[in-house]
């Protein structure tokens, strides 16, 4: 999904090409799943005639400040994207839609606007997980008001970062994905910065040394800035980045000759290199204890189920014996008595043959 670099590239494109221009035409798609809390007609009316004063971003959220409120906000979801006609914007494969002059705006367009100089832009979403809202103060209401410091524009100091992590027993990958802790980092960036910092994704945040924290902060800055510098085009990321290979099948994914393994961390599929990202003994012990507790519970449950099953079987056998008819018992005894002479005769015959 679009993360900080993709949204920042879109923001910069809007800032460079649209700020200072007036919206003269607007079309909003009838899609209540994406157009959230406002009718298409009200959103159109709020934008037409307004001048774009600034394009702003926090985390993965973008909004346009107009010459008067309310302002449109864009939460990109899984596949949200900004397209400006005739101008290159971020290339993100899940967001990509084929747009030609004949197809402009795309059938996936949710908000389309034309400016007073003829320039046109569109917010598209082919997966329909994005949200477009109209609010008077974007930074004062959720989701933007609930975000932690922006990973690019509001970086924590090393001491502040280390102190915050020392109080968290959460696995570091899950913590990096928590937008209330730090905003803008998503799945691929989290995997990348942890790989570059040589930190295991399941390492407890509180187990990281100050040196680890310093390295991790440096990697967050470098990865985000490099991604933005190449227009968030993943095909232009360095060959030594794990993100270039994380879409390959398990067992066939390698980075710089080292095997990539996949686990679930923070509820997301996570790529890491065991050879370089080892788990500390304390985090390993905590993980083992957690697994043991689960296995003990499973064993107890299995024992209870086995006991219940045995009781049910015994009960069934008892019921079967009670349901047997007297003639069945006579038949069984008769069958048994017939077998015994036959066995005795066989033994006698064998002994006679041996004497001969």
Automatic annotation (TrEMBL):
The keyword ATP-binding does not apply. Residues 303-317 have a biased composition (Basic and acidic residues). One of its GO terms (biological process) is base-excision repair. Gene3D superfamilies: 1.10.8.50, MutM-like, N-terminal. Belongs to the FPG family. SMART domains: Fapy_DNA_glyco (SM00898), H2TH (SM01232). Keywords: DNA damage, DNA repair, DNA-binding, Glycosidase, Hydrolase, Lyase, Multifunctional enzyme. Monomer. One of its GO terms (molecular function) is damaged DNA binding. This is Formamidopyrimidine-DNA glycosylase catalytic domain-containing protein. It holds the Pfam family Fapy_DNA_glyco. One of its GO terms (cellular component) is nucleus. It catalyses: 2'-deoxyribonucleotide-(2'-deoxyribose 5'-phosphate)-2'-deoxyribonucleotide-DNA = a 3'-end 2'-deoxyribonucleotide-(2,3-dehydro-2,3-deoxyribose 5'-phosphate)-DNA + a 5'-end 5'-phospho-2'-deoxyribonucleoside-DNA + H(+); Hydrolysis of DNA containing ring-opened 7-methylguanine residues, releasing 2,6-diamino-4-hydroxy-5-(N-methyl)formamidopyrimidine. Residues 2-130 form the Formamidopyrimidine-DNA glycosylase catalytic domain. Residues 282-356 are annotated as: Disordered. InterPro entries: Fpg-like_C, FPG_cat, FPG_Glyclase, FPG_N, H2TH_FPG, Ribosomal_uS13-like_H2TH. The keyword Iron-sulfur does not apply.
């Amino acid at each position: 999904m679009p993360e900080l670099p993709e949204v920042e590239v879109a923001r910069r494109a809007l800032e460079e090409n649209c700020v200072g221009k007036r919206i003269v035409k607007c079309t909003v798609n009838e899609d209540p799943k994406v157009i959230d809390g406002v009718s298409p007609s009200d959103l159109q009316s709020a934008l037409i005639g307004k001048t774009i004063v600034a394009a702003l971003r926090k985390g993965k959220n973008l909004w346009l400040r107009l010459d008067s409120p309310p302002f449109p906000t864009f939460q990109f979801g899984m596949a949200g994207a900004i397209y400006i006609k005739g101008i290159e914007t971020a290339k993100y494969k899940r967001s990509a839609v084929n747009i030609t002059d004949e197809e402009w705006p795309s059938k996936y367009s949710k908000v389309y606007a034309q400016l007073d100089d003829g320039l046109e832009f569109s917010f598209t979403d082919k997966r329909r997980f994005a949200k477009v809202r109209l609010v008077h103060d974007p930074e004062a209401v959720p989701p933007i008001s609930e975000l932690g410091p922006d990973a690019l524009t509001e970086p924590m100091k090393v001491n502040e970062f280390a102190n915050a992590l020392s109080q968290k027993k959460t696995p570091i990958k899950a913590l990096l994905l928590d937008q209330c802790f730090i905003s803008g980092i998503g799945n691929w960036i989290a995997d990348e910065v942890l790989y570059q910092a040589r930190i295991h994704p399941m390492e407890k945040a509180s187990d990281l040394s100050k040196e680890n924290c310093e390295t991790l902060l440096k990697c967050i800055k470098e990865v985000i800035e490099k991604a933005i510098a190449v227009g968030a085009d993943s095909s232009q990321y360095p060959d030594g980045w794990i993100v270039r290979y994380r879409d390959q099948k398990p067992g066939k994914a390698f980075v710089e000759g080292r095997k990539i393994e996949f686990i679930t961390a923070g509820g997301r599929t996570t790529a890491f290199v065991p050879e370089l990202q080892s788990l500390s003994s304390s985090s390993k012990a905590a993980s083992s204890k957690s697994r043991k507790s689960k296995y003990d519970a499973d064993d107890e449950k299995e024992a209870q189920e086995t006991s219940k099953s045995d009781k049910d079987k015994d009960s069934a056998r008892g019921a079967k014996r009670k349901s047997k008819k007297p003639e069945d018992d006579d038949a069984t005894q008769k069958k048994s008595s017939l077998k015994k002479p036959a066995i005795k005769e066989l033994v006698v015959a064998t002994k006679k043959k041996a004497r001969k």
